[in-house]
Amino acid sequence: MDRAFPLPPTPQYSPIVTAADGSVLHAFLNPTQKWRMKTELREITPALRKAIVAKEDRWFYWHFGVNPFALVQAAARNLFGRGRTTGASTITMQVARLLEPKERTVGNKLLEIVRAVQLEAHYSKAEILQLYLNLVPYGGNVEGVKSAALLYFQQPPDYLSLAQTITLAVIPNRPRGLVLGRNNGAVRRERNRWLRRFGAEGLFARQDIADALLEPLEVQRHAAPTLAPHLARRLVRQHPRQAIIASTLSRSKQTKAEDLTRNYVRRLHELGISNAAVLVVNNRTRAVEAYVGSADFQDAFTQGQVDGIQAVRSPGSTLKPFLYALAFDRGLVTPKLVLPDVPTNFAGYRPENFDKHCNGEVTLERALAFSLNIPAVRVLSEMGVATFTDKLREAGFQRVGRDAPRLGLSTILGGCGASLEELTNLFVTLANSGRYAPLQWIVSRPNATASPARSKGEVALVSDGAAFLVTDILSQLTRPDLPVSYESSTHLPKIAWKTGTSYGRRDAWSIGYNREYTIGVWIGNFSGQGAPALTGADVATPLLFDLFNTIAYNSPNDWFQPPASLDFRLVCAETGQLPGANCPNQLIDYFLPGTSSTQRCEHQKEVLLSADGRYAYCRACAPVAGFRRELYPNMLPEIVAYKETQGIPYRRLPPHNPECQLVRGGAERAPSITSPLPNTEYVLNRGEKQQLLLSCTTDNEVRQVYWYVNDRFLRAAAATERVFFRPAPGPLKISCADDHGRNTDIRVIVSEL
């Protein structure tokens, strides 16, 4: 029979995306533009099953697809014209007709009979009843009991009352005459007629029948569920042949996140900000529990159908916590380590802080809490861009992985592409003691008790100690990115968070986490247009706090604890390094035993001075007697230059002994030319008589430098003096020598317009 009559294909269902509890979040029309949502076996309640069988085919569980007695009785009625004309169709025969609609003829009836027997051989009675309930018409383009239940009663079939269940059981015989929302009175009368009949037959309890008869029927057709539209479309594309896709979303959290985001963005419209995206992740399972791709999916003017969760944008400063975590693990830094925050030339790249202000020297924890750019670039320079981008590739950053060969130091300040999905999971990794795994979008099986499918390949990107140190810093409240009026607010959630703002104020980020949840927020315009008010602290963080207070209000009040891999030690308060011989001020700092640097502090150095203090001696020219020893600050040249330009007083070394005949070389202490940039082409305007700036940073002992252009002496200048000159077009060799005989050369090209 299968060879002669191949089974018809399975029905084309309307794809639906469900929440973790099984409720329908989003539904789509099937390819034939019908609402035909698949009813699962567990949704067929005993009441529905008994009503359908009693009404349509009371011998359903006893025959083999065809009721021969009913066929004989129907044939006699139709032949002799006595009684009501019937086709004696069983539920199985109706399924055969619904699967392959044909004109009602004797020949087609015989085909139905053959097909019914074939269906009985392939499917169980429960599966045949399920097929029937998925195909029965309810008027218009509504087919199946689940579609009718959701579109008219806004409940799945297993949540309906007895009266509602009987209503759906009686309509399929007259789908054009009994239309819910249009003929409610006629539907109610037909429903009650069958209720009384079922009551007389003892199918249901007498009191249940009495209550059902009194239940009003005031329904109308509702729109199909449309929660989480971006994720729903994403999952349907990934699973094109699946009728029911069970997502990990929490219906309540998704609803709250959508409402909060929509209302919040409405208040930002007057600031030229039109959109936002929000991602909520359960840290323990990595299940995505809320997914808001835009503020309003239906708003075409603001490009609401763009998915902000997957959109690749500039991440601003949001990568800094991960950089510092990697630096902790490589022993480059500790929280109290002091880093220079002064104008610095990193091989031609000159970063600036967000507020255009430098702080001189800052601890690492302050550099992260205040999101300072220059210290972050310095740490990345020491670590290596390739090392950092390799780790980001391991963390699932696809655009960074593709662009890695072209990325430079600006990567840490947003000079790369990342999505909210990638960034949020990076912070989930920090919340999970440095262990990375992909986010989970669907549950392991489509039922309400399903648990998210756990990833088998967790990867330790950073140590638990490094993750804790970053979390400890990000949970501090003394920081500039705390929104205005939140300092003493009772609505301030206990979270660790980091903000970010991309260049041109096109993207505002705020990503935070506690033990239970990580929430990522992006705010901006999908057009890429910037706005003056668009900053992570002022715009994105208030929404982040609102989301935590609404979605995670009942999170456990426990907090991250220091892991066993961390320990304490005393460090110099001036540098954050292990105390040296001249470090009277000390404080306690975390460190990673066996990993953190054990370099001793040398923030002061011993200097040999003449008796009158006018000159300093080196070991080669120090006299046998008549000198004294004193401690002087041992600062980096860029720190010295910063203090000079800012007029900050410091203890400066006296000039070196002029009678010293030893020229002290050492390229490592030679002047560093900060302007012009090496290997750069400068285009000058001939009419404006533009000049080129010469500047350098030098060792603390240097008083004077000597500038040369193409090996010809230009002029002498103070070590911190800015020199201007008008160069001739063409290649230039610029040299700077200090008063200790150390020299640095660079080459540039000058053109004129």
Explain what the structure shows.
There is one protein chain. This protein has 753 residues and is α+β, with helices and mostly antiparallel strands. A hairpin with a 5-residue loop joins strand 12 (496-501) and strand 13. Helix 7 (162-170) packs across helix 8 and helix 12 (320-329) packs across helix 18 (464-474). The longest helix is centred in the middle third of the chain and has 18 residues, at 251-268. The N and C termini lie far apart (88 Å). The relative contact order is 0.08. Residues 446-450 and 663-667 have low confidence and may be disordered.
- Uncertain segments of ≥5 residues (pLDDT<50)? 446-450, 663-667
The helix content, as a percent range, equals 25-40%
First-residue to last-residue Cα separation? 88 Å
What structural class do helix, strand and pairing data support?
Answer: alpha+beta
Can you summarize the main beta sheet? 5 strands, antiparallel
H/I helix tally: 20
> Shape, please?
elongated
Query: Could you give the order of strands across the largest sheet?
Result: 7-6-14-13-12
Could you give the count of β-strands?
27
- Mean pLDDT equals 89
| Cα radius of gyration in angstroms | 38 Å
Strand content: 15-25%
